[in-house]
Specification:
Chains A, B: Residues 147-292 form the Tetrahydrofolate dehydrogenase/cyclohydrolase NAD(P)-binding domain. 2 copies of one chain form a homodimer. With 302 residues, chain A is an alpha/beta fold. Chain A has 2 domains: 38-124, Leucine Dehydrogenase, chain A, domain 1 (Rossmann fold, 3-Layer(aba) Sandwich); 147-276, 3-Layer(aba) Sandwich (Rossmann fold), CATH 3.40.50. Chain A has 11 helices and 10 strands. Chain A has helices at residues 6-9, 15-35, 52-67, 83-95, 114-120, 132-140, 148-160, 179-188, 203-207, 257-260, 274-293, and strands at residues 42-48, 71-77, 101-104, 168-172, 192-196, 212-215, 233-236, 240-243, 249-252, 266-267. In chain A, helix 8 (179-188) links the parallel strand 4 (168-172) and strand 5. In chain A, helix 7 crosses helix 8. At the A-B interface, helix 6, helix 8 and strand 5 of A face helix 6, helix 8 and strand 5 of B. Strand 5 of chain A pairs antiparallel with strand 5 (192-196) of chain B, so a sheet runs across the interface.
Chain lengths: 302, 302
């Protein structure tokens, strides 16, 4: 990232720093949780196949889990794994009392139905929050495990907004992984919430009404400077690798960052914004799952 | 309701007529379902306490279920019923193969937690669609049982819109019973969806942007004529009994109907709009639940 003058740099939401603070706090909470006589929280990560990007993600999750003082279990299965074999493994992990969280890395090979697999994880171990029970709890406002990326976005928003009541939040992108749970979280914060997507007729006009704008489309540079209401808080979930004129590559978000920075009140950079929060929230969810299993209330309310 | 000139009467969405057609069709489908050798679909309705309005609702549900050719089971328990007694009954109903749908009439007495009770109904028998599994399925876009009132609203919308893609739908009211599932259904129809509620700063301005406006607040007359975009479709879920100047009472909705009628493109009256659809959708869900139990796909897609 370039260096910005102080008045612009002050607008940046430092996801990397916030994620590090959260991870440090979780580490301390894990220590005191174990000192109180509870089992060491354990996270099982399951990877099927040899996608290189997925291998990197899974490895990073395992390392950070371990660093936070938790047990990390890795299960790497071949690309040819049958659905029933994966379901058998999940049944074992569901029954294993050393394991409090289970994550199956997506995408899965074509012979495996991700919906069946996701719903085969016991709801109280579903630390990705992607199963139907946790999705329902989020929708109904019942405590449950919230998907990591939108939870991270919420924490970034809470770093700049003490109270979001009455703010108009616009979410661009309506995926089950980010956009839809994000909308639920913002409703719970008493925001007025609008969801735009590929079929929305005038996304720019809707975005311009947003006090809080969350963009999760995977289309790099979609949101231009003139899409943003002056002073709005912008959370950019997108992350795409693009070639530079010098023949190298760099990571960019769904927001045209240089255009948006002078207009937004607060904005997340890419990289260093939402990205680092996702793993930190996975650790948060794993500790929460361990607490619930051992009959403790969760550490903090959202 | 008054009599309107033809150009205004043509704007009315005839919920009563549409519900009657749906109920008739379900009756025919039930007949052929049974003729094909399937069990008679059965609905169990559970009432706890002596609320007179609830007694009327429950009785109407039972009668209409019976008229549609299905079995109707009524369980009326005293106000003093303990939660564990109700859960015991629900376990029996879950296990009873003659029963395909279970509905617990709300509200429940204060000693009973409605969340616990709702989630004690087996998801495939949860014909009110209020449990966490069905809420999650709706949120994730997986087939499931959809709450009756928003499902009825969707059918009324489909009676005037073949395709809602790209329309801006605004839902006023964010309850788990109506507003939130309604927003999910409208997203699934490819609408751009905004949800307003008690904390929304300028509900009128947002409502004026709506091509489709669904109002479910319980505040009679909240939505005035100048809240409505000319030509919009207005679905009024509210139903409140108010006194008339003549010392009688009448039922009114959340929309100031006489003001809205000349401006809206289509509008539901109160009574005779959304109300009759709710029981018709309960019958629809009961037949769907019976079909799923007996391994048939559901009758029609949404």
């Amino acid at each position: 990232m370039s260096t910005f003058p102080p008045e612009l740099a002050g607008k940046l939401i430092d996801g990397k720093g916030i994620a590090r603070s959260l991870t440090d706090r979780i580490g301390r909470e894990v220590s005191s949780f174990i000192e109180q006589g509870n089992a060491v929280p354990g996270l099982a990560v399951v990877l099927v196949g040899n996608d290189p990007a997925s291998e990197v993600y899974v490895k990073n999750k395992a390392i950070q889990t371990h660093r936070a003082g938790m047990r990390s279990f890795m299960h790497m299965l071949p690309q040819s794994t049958k659905q029933e074999e994966l379901l058998e493994l999940l049944a074992q992990l569901n029954a294993n009392p050393q394991i409090h969280g289970i994550l199956v890395q997506l995408p899965l090979p074509p012979q495996i139905d991700p919906v069946v697999v996701t719903n085969a994880i016991a709801p109280h171990k579903d630390v990705d929050g992607l199963g139907e029970v946790n999705a329902g709890r989020l929708s109904l406002g019942i405590d449950g495990l919230v998907p990591c990326t939108p939870l991270g976005c919420l924490m970034l928003l809470q770093s700049v907004h003490k109270d979001m009541t009455g703010k108009h939040a616009v979410v661009i992108g309506a995926s089950s992984l980010v956009g839809k749970p994000m909308a639920q979280l913002l409703l719970k914060q008493n925001c007025t919430v609008s969801v735009a997507h590929i079929h929305t007729r005038d996304t720019r006009a809707l975005a311009r009404e947003a006090d809080i704008l969350v963009v999760a489309t995977g289309k790099h540079g979609l949101v231009r400077g003139d899409w943003i209401k002056p002073g709005a808080t912008v959370i950019d979930v997108g992350i795409t690798r693009v070639p530079t004129p010098e023949g190298r590559t760099r990571l960019v978000g769904d927001v045209a960052f240089e255009e948006a920075l002078p207009i937004a009140g607060h904005i997340t950079p890419v990289p260093g914004g939402v990205g680092p929060m996702t793993i930190a929230c996975l650790l948060h969810n794993t500790l929460q799952a361990a607490r619930v299993t051992q009959g403790q209330s969760k550490g903090e309310a959202l």
